[in-house]
Fold this protein.
Amino acid sequence: MNIDEIQNLCKRLPGVTEDIKWGNDLCFSVGKKMFLVAGLEQSPVTASFKVTDEQFEEMLAKRGFKPAPYMAKHKWIYLDDINLLNKQEWAFYINQSYDLVKQKLSKKLQQQLNTKN
């Protein structure tokens, strides 16, 4: 996987915005809430995203996965190389992170996003 493929997977989701934060991190958001952050200046490229409570502990046991700085309490995982996941896994985790963040948005905003499908 490369950052362009991850970017394409994110941008297919309804209401996704993309911007650069903190000078060099590519951030994908829904309803102004981030669901994936990629560290573009790291080599290899890194990423952080939200997972379920159950997955959080499981993923920490795997090589290359750590609690995301500042966001671990919200069950965000830091991946030290985006190539550790294949395209199918990325599609799953991007969709799931998007859905987990979207569920925290107001009902009105969720409904607006649902009508954009």
The chain has four helices and six strands. The mean pLDDT is 93.
